[in-house]
Design a protein that fits this description.
Length: 320
């Protein structure tokens, strides 16, 4: 299923930035005066641009009015963090934007390169006067060298972080520490979507309030069929082989008030098979807006209505 082909999708809007870099993976939040969108811009040729020691990247903040008239565009300064926060010294990647205690925050995968080795560590940072400040390093709960795609959730002014949705693993960020909260919140560890081709679901968007519970977009990364990959690589010599050989399926996930997974959608793409990535979902009244990237070079917003989205989410038979 492709969302842009659904008759009830209200509008699609492309995001533009005043930069020579490609840009992708936008993240959206709803504010009192319109919408805020965080967009990552990156060098299309890794280790080639102005920062040859890493993948050149920038983070831009766009402010839209309620009707998505663009009000402002600003490149956010991250140099202090890159210079003082070692786990993020080579860039802040794929930020999820969220509002917490009246301020805009980002949850990033901080990038660090050591010789031929690559490391990713989750980083929290706050926006203040056009720059990222107050970085907080979030060590991997499982001592993994590369962490990505955690999903922020603000509940009762407390910050929760969804480490994974299958199996469900949630942490409360408090006083600079991550505290597992499954037992505290009454989460049923057996409540999960049936395994999808033996793989797991990775985080994509934030986790936002939805009816009496919570909603998120998650994704599953799979490889294109072998024959198709061979055809693209050796017969057609497709110049976009690298972004077509992997397919991202997305899912809407619905949780109850205690973060138990209760419903999900069928798998969908936004507009094409290949590399797509949704890093944001936001609501305002009955409006729902999702932000996503296509092939790591295009950023778009897709708007629909609450009722339309509810039709896409089906009842999920629970295990256990």
């Amino acid at each position: 299923m492709k969302l842009i082909e659904c008759s009830n999708m209200v509008r699609m809007q492309e995001i533009h930035l005043p930069t020579s870099l490609d840009f992708c993976n936008p993240s959206i939040v709803a504010g009192e005066e319109g919408w805020w969108v965080l967009v990552r811009a990156l060098d299309p040729i890794p280790y080639h641009g102005s920062q040859q020691e890493c993948l050149s990247s920038e983070n831009w903040l766009l402010h839209y009015a309620d009707d998505f008239t663009l009000k402002s565009t600003r490149k956010l300064d991250d140099q202090k963090i890159l210079q003082t926060c070692s786990p993020a010294r080579n860039g802040l990647e794929d930020g999820r934007l969220f509002l917490w205690k009246g301020e805009l925050w980002g949850l990033f995968s901080g990038f660090r390169r050591e010789g031929e080795s690559f490391y990713n560590t989750m980083i929290l940072a706050r926006i203040s006067e056009g720059e990222w400040v107050d970085p907080v390093v979030l060590p991997s709960p499982h001592d993994h060298a590369r962490e990505k795609n955690w999903m922020p959730c603000v509940r009762d002014d407390e910050l929760y972080l969804f480490y994974s949705t299958q199996p469900l693993e949630v942490y409360l960020y408090s006083e600079g520490e991550l505290r597992p909260v499954s037992e505290k919140l009454g989460v049923n560890p057996k409540s999960r979507i049936a395994p999808i081709r033996g793989s797991i679901l990775s985080g994509s968007s934030q986790v936002i309030p939805w009816e009496t519970g919570w909603l998120a977009v998650s994704h599953h990364r799979r490889k294109a069929p072998v024959f198709k990959k061979l055809f693209m690589k050796h017969i057609t010599h497709d110049s976009e082989y690298q972004v077509k050989k992997v397919i991202f399926d997305h899912y809407f996930l619905c949780f109850d008030g205690n973060f138990n997974l209760i419903r999900r959608s069928e798998p969908f793409q936004f507009e094409m098979e290949g590399v797509e990535f949704c890093a944001g979902i936001a609501t305002k009244g009955r409006r729902v807006v999702m932000s996503y990237g296509v092939r790591d070079r295009i950023s778009r917003l897709l708007e629909t209505r609450v009722d339309t989205l509810n039709h896409l989410i089906m009842e999920l038979p629970m295990s256990g």
